[in-house]
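Researcher: We plan to redesign the surface later, but first we want a full-length starting point. C-alpha cells attached.
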C-alpha cells in the first residue's frame, strides 16, 4: 500500500541527498579555484551516482534472474556481482572527486564512470524485459 511507513520514510533519501550535496560542494570548491569545467563534470558524476542510489533506495533484496541459475549459488553470485559493481562505481566516483580537488586530470576516471552509469541505466530499463 502506498501509504505504508516504509514508502513515506525520508530516511531512504538521506544517502542520495548527501551524495548530491557533496557534488554541489565539490563543484563550488572547484569553481572557486577557477576550475569550472572540472567542477561541472564532478557534479555530473556525483549527480548520476546519486540518481543510481535513489533509484535503488527501495530495493530490499536483489532480484534473481534465471541467467544465474537458481538457489543459494545464484543468489550468492548475483550479490557478489552487484557488490563488485557498486564498489567499482564508488571508487570511480571517489577518484573523480579526489583528482578534481587535487587539480589533476580527471578524464581517465570520467569515461569509466560514465560507462558504469549508462550500463546501469540500460540494465534497469531493459533488464527485466528479456532483450
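Model: Full-length starting sequence:
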Amino acid at each position: 500500500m502506498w501509504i505504508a511507513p516504509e514508502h513515506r520514510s525520508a530516511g531512504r533519501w538521506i544517502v542520495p541527498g548527501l551524495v548530491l550535496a557533496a557534488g554541489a560542494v565539490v563543484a563550488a570548491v572547484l569553481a572557486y579555484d577557477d576550475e569550472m569545467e572540472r567542477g561541472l563534470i564532478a557534479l555530473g558524476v556525483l549527480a548520476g551516482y546519486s540518481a543510481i542510489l535513489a533509484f535503488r533506495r527501495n530495493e530490499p533484496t536483489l532480484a534473481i534472474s534465471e541467467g544465474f541459475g537458481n538457489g543459494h549459488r545464484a543468489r550468492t553470485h548475483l550479490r557478489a556481482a552487484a557488490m563488485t559493481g557498486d564498489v567499482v562505481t564508488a571508487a570511480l566516483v571517489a577518484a573523480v572527486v579526489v583528482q578534481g580537488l587535487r587539480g589533476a586530470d580527471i578524464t581517465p576516471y570520467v569515461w569509466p564512470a560514465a560507462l558504469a552509469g549508462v550500463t546501469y541505466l540500460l540494465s534497469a530499463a531493459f533488464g527485466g524485459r528479456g532483450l
